[in-house]
Amino acid sequence: MSRRASETYEKMPPHKTTNLEKNCGQIFAKGPALTREILDKMHKNRTYILGYEIETKQFWMLSGLVLLFLLSFSGMIAMWFTDAFDNIIFSKLAIVPDSDSYYMWVKPSPKPYFKVYIFNYTNVPEFESKEADKLNVKELGPYVYEVSLDRVNVRFNGSQVTYQERRVLKFMPHMSNGRRQNDRLVVPNIPLFSAAAVNKHSTYLGRVGLSGLLNSLNAKPFLTMPAHRFIIGYEDNLYSLSKSYMKFRNQKPLERFGLMSGNVGVREDVLTIDTGLNDINKLGIVDEVNGESSLKHWSTAECNNFNDATDGTIFSPKKIRNKRPVQYYYKEMCRAIPLYFEKEVKILNGKIPAYRYHIPDTIYDTPDKTPENQCFCDLDLGECPLQGVFNATPCAFGAPVFFSFPHFYNADPALREAVTGLNSTVDYKSYMDLHPTLGFVMAGKTRTQVNIQVAKSFGISQVNMFEDGLMLPVAWIEFTLEDKTLPEDMVGIIFQTTFTVKSIELGLKYGSLLLTAVTLFGILLVLRNKWINRERTSSIRPLQRTEESV
Question: Name one GO cellular component term (predicted).
Answer without folding.
Answer: caveola
